[in-house]
Each structure stands twice: as structure tokens, then as C-alpha cells.
Design brief:
The complex is a heterodimer of chains A (753) and B (58). With 753 residues, chain A is of the alpha+beta class. Chain A contains 26 helices and 27 strands. By secondary structure, chain B is mainly α. The chains are: A alpha+beta (753), B mainly alpha (58).
Chain lengths: 753, 58
Amino acid sequence: MTFCDTSTQLADDRDERAGGGIRRAERLGRVERGPDGRGHCRLSVPGISCGKCIGAVERALSDCEGVVAARANLTLRQVAITLRDPETDPAPAIERLGAQGYPATLIDLAAPGDAQADDAARFLLRCLAVAGFGATNVMLLSVSVWAGAEGAARDVFHAVSALIAVPVVAYAGRPFFASALTALRGGRLNMDVPISLAVLLATAISLVETAMRGPHVYFDAAVVLLFFLLVGRYLDQLMRAKARSAVTSLARLASRGAMRERPDGTDVYLALDDIRPDMVLRIAPGERIPVDGCIVGGATDLDRSLVTGEHAPVPAGPGVALEAGILNLTGAIRMRVLRPAGDSFLAEVARMLEAAEQGRGAYVRIADRAARLYAPVVHLLAALTFVGWVVATGEWYPSLFIAISALIITCPCALGLAVPVVHVAAAGRLFRQGIMMKDGSGLERLATIDCVVFDKTGTVTTGTPVVTGGGPDAAEGLAVAAALATRSLHPASRAIAALADGPPVPVDDLRETPGCGIEGVVEGRRARLGRPDWVAEIATGGQRSGSAGPAFALEGGPLKTFTLSETLRDGAAEAVAALRAAGMQVELLSGDSAGAVEAVARKIPFDHVRHGATPADKIAHLKALQAEGRRALMVGDGLNDAAALAAAHVSMAPGSASDAGRMAADFVFTREAMGAVTDARRIARRAARQVRQNFGIAIAYNCIAIPLAVAGYVTPLVAAIAMSGSSIVVVANSIRPERRAPGAAPAMRSAPA
Amino acid sequence: MSVLALLIPTSIGLGLVGLAAFLWSMRNGQYEDLDGSAERVLLDDEDRPLPTRDEDRR
């Protein structure tokens, strides 16, 4: 099947792949049956960025075939769709959205991880609600006591407070108790250890005090403390949920199966895990190779960029080995499976990634570093206070009460809020700049970088070629060339197709010859677009330039060659210049050939340029930088960069990156311009500064509070005022707006749709 | 003092009503799309409520 009639095949293929690049069988697998008997599915629609989009998306779907109801979610940039029944194919809805300018992909609801995180978020919110209820009611009673309630009335207030506070602490404190317990079991100290201890001891001593009809109880402190800390915890969770939804929904684009050709010639769709060696798979043009194998039939061009980093297509025929992740561009092929999915090249990369990530595990979050210092100091201080008072007065109960007061007032309420509130604010700023952040640890690491390593293809350059010269002019059949090009998935064809203006030219008898090009008949004349020597067969005269660019000719007409070149990403030169001006060492580390790398290096001045680097070379280079004591930011996109992204001190990937690249990176920027790198660094550094300020505030507060507490002057009223006061100052410092730096990019509400 | 026997249960009862209302609104899916809800107020179209979590779940 060297020559196959691709026009009908392309049409079948389009229908099969209408749902955002995944097959019908898989699409239906992602539709769930609701209790109402209808089908439910979710689409990831990154283009939903404002209120107008909500209306546009819902209106577009309201009269779409098979759709009963659609509801857009602006926060997660998703659309929840109710289908007539679970057997309805959501493809028309996906196509309708695509036609409206909102590319959509179907989310796999069964993917692990999401449901747990959702449950965790809801659990935190419930805890927050319970703590809020407890805090307001206990505080009301406490204010009455502070206002001067005495005797029996005070005892009643205390008893009622205890009735509310004990169940509230038991319920809302669980996130902290669980985390503290895990840390202690592992022989570590985290912030949750002093928090849990303070809350539990405060509740316990207050219960004793209530029973003994004493004057001071700390129920309000315990509950309000939990409430404040849960606010911080919930904000943190919310931020991560947002980033996760943005990043992982992209990852689910990948098809997780392939068409198997049975020995009797019929086809069946198999999930990735069910593919076994020696099976024969059919790979249509535009599909990725699911597992390692070799071609047994057909000819095509392959995009091996995931493996080599190079986008130039390679012609391939029977006998050629295929690695999982390679993109099949032009021809339908049959392949024999060599290894199951678990042993494929992709899986190998995943293992390299895991190994590289473990190397980075040495980084300790700033809050945990603070806790390591803070917790022993506070606990020691409380113990010394107790011993000191026992020695001085000889009475153990008042001494214990004072010691616990010290523990409560020094409890890291402000410290617990110091980091998450800053990070939430920074994540919001990054999000408005089109940058997704995975977690706060990446933000802390980004603030400390002193070296930046860029990958070339897809990162510094956009990875898609553009026509920069040559080719036919309008009279010589530019429209015909563009019309031919629209029918091919070859990257060069896409660049040529982009030149078309005006209505499409009708083409008859369209054939694509894998490895050669595409041909068709227009107004009775045969036209070819593809490899120069193949096109020259029908041409007469015309220039044959030395470049490897594609050629076009009408039958009997002159041969015209296109010149293609890579385009630099917007703002790449400015970003590199800005980073160098800030004293960073900026490097280009590419797997591409010397010529292509030098062409880019001529336009952008890097400190250091290296070409022909394999994935292992990249990791070795980053390890070497680390050994020199440098903290490197890796910016890359490909599968060949994924392990390097994980090995670097901190990493960023463009939204167009491979799944593995996006999963490995700490930050993903969805806007086109490279300015995202400098913006992210600026925001991260500001966040780090604010965290340090917050720690400063918390320490200053403790310098005043601790002597008072040790001296025994702290009453529950003083504790309540001091704790709320310091928390409010810390929160206010974290969310204060940024003073506009000169030359800083204006904040965008979101990327234009 | 006997007024306290009335006032304290009343205040706690009101608090519990608030808590219950919050938990209901959460279960109802009103915290699923905070940004969207802010924008939807400004839309002229007929607006249907979000399908609830339970309906939406597998």
C-alpha cells in the first residue's frame, strides 16, 4: 500500500479522531452514566477565560446534537456536559466548541489522584466550617467572661464553651493531628507538631480549669487557632487544585490505546495495558506510536522529536524500529509490537524521571526548616518555664498553667500562615500572567536560581517551521500549493497551508505518497508538493536550490522550492538578556544538530551553547552544575528533556510541551512569550522576600510575647489579642499589592481567547 | 440569670443553623466555581443551577 487513496481514508480518520485526538471507543469510555440515566462527561476547555466565554460556550452547546445541558466552570476551565444517554458520543460537542474557537479535550474522570484531592479539599472546607462555627460561639462566651462575668455565670459559660470546643477540636483538628503523627513516626518535626501540642494541651488544661471552677480557660485560643490555620491550609489546597486542573487536564490528551489488527483481518481497539508483543497494530497518520515495535507494512514520515528533540520528519518504511511516543505524520502503517507498554522507551524515560526526582528530594521547604528550629526552642522554653516556676513557687498546678500559656501564645499561628498566604497570593499573580505553579516548594526554589538552562526546539524556538521565502507566487499556484498542504499533517505542509488566503481551491484525485509528498489534480493539471526530486518528475525547469525545503510544481510548470526556518519564541532574546543582566549564567542545551543550534545562538547571545546532547547528557550536565553548587532553572519541553527537568533545581515547561515534560516541570506557562520566565522569577523572588518579612514579624511578636508568658502575665484575653493581631499583620503583609516595578509587564487578566 | 438559659441555646442554635446551611451549600456544589459565579451575575441569559456533586459523580 505504497499508494493509497488517502482522501477517503482522511475522512474516516477525521471522524475517528474528532474528539480532540482520541478514538471513539475511548471517548465513550470517558462518558459516565448518571443516576438520572443520562451520560455525563467533562471537557477541559483552556480557552474559557472570562464571563463572556461562559455565555458563548453554553450557548454554543445548548442546541448541539445529543447535549441535554452544559455548564461551564470558569475556575477550573472545564465544561460539565449532560448527554442524552451514556452511549452518546460527545464528539459533536467537542467539534462545536472547536469551531467557536474553544479547543476542548475530554477528561478521563476515572484517572486516579483527582478524586482523592477533591475529597481532601472538601474535608478541609468542612473542618474550616466547623472551626468557624466553634470559634464564633466560643468567642462570644469568652467575651462575656472578659466583660466581667463572675461566679456561677462564669462557670456556666466555661462549661458551655467546653461543650462546643471539645467536639470542634476533635473534628477540625484532625488534618493537623494526622500530619503531626506522620512526622513524629518518621522521627521528624514539622509545624503541625507544636500546633497539635498547643491545641491539645490548651483544651486539656481548660477542661481541668473548668472542672475546678478556675478563672482562666483557653477554649477560645484553641478553636480560633485551628480556624486561622485551616484558612491557610484551605487556601493552599485551593491553589494546588487550580494548578493541577490546568496541568493534568492537558496530560490526558494522550491516547491510551491502539487499533489491533486481528489475524483474521478485523480490527479491535485495545487499551495500552492489553497490548502484547507480536501483535500487529494499525497506526493512522497523526497518531503517536503507543509501544516500541517495528514497521511491517506501509511507508510514512516520522516525527521523532520526542526522542531526539529534532522536529525534521524522517521517512520510514518496513523494518524501521519505532519507539513509543514517536508521531506518525503522513502514511498509515502496520507495526509489530516488540515490547509491552511497561518496557517501552516511554516507560524507560518515566523511570529516569523518577530517579532524577529523588535526587531533588533533598530540598526542605522553608516552613519545615523553620519548624526544625522553632519547635524544639518553644518546647524547651515551655519546659524551662514550668521547672522555673515550680522551683520558685513550689506549686505545680499554677506552674503548669503558666507553661501551657507560654506554649499557646508562642504557637506558630502567624508562622503557619506566613508561607501559605504568600504562596497563594503569588500563585494568583502567576496565574494572571499565564503561568501555572504546581506547589509552593517550586516557588521557593525558583527564587534562589543563579543559572538558567534552555532547551532549543519548542522552548527558545516555537518548534513549528514557518515559510520565510521561496515557493510559487500567487500566479504560479500558491493557492494550489496551500490547498494540497491543508490535506497533510507534515509540519512543512502546515507552514505552507498557513500561507493560504481566499477560498480553498478544489482538488481532485488527492494522493499522499509517504516519504515523498502529496499530489492532486487542479483544473485538469497535476500538481505536486513534497520532496524536490519527486516533484521535479513533473516539472520543467525552475530553480533547484540546495536547501532541503519542500518543492511545489504544476505539471509542466517550473519547480519552486520553499525556504523554511524555525521561529524564535516571542521575547526569547529579551528574556535571555534580562536574565544575563540579573547576573545569571544562561545556557542553551539542545539535542539538535550543530547548524540548527548555531543559527539560534547567532540571534540570541547565550553564555554557553551545546548541541547534540542526549537526555542522559542533559541530566549529567545539570548534575555537574549542581555539584558546582549552582542552582539551575531548566526550561524545556520535550520528552527528551523530561528527566532533565526533574533533575534541575527547578524547572519550567511551555504549555505546548510533551505530557512528560509538563508533568516533570514545576511551572507550566501557557502564554506564548518567553517573558514568562523572567516574570515567574520576579514573582518568586518577591514571594520569598515576603515570607522572610513574615517570619520577621512572627519572631518580633514572639520576642514580646514570650517574656510576658514566661513571667506569667498572659491571660486568655492577652493571648487572643496577641494571636489575632500577629496573624492579621502577617496576612495583610502577604496580600498587599505589588508596587509596579519600572518596565514590568502589566498584569493580564488572562490570556485572550 | 434565667435569661441565659434561653439566650445561650438560642445563639448556639443559630450557629448550628448557619453551619448546616454552609454544609448544604457545599454539598450543593456552590463552591465548585467561585470565579464563574462572580461573572454569571452579569450574564443576561437564563441561568440553571450547577448539577449537584452527587448527580455528577460516578
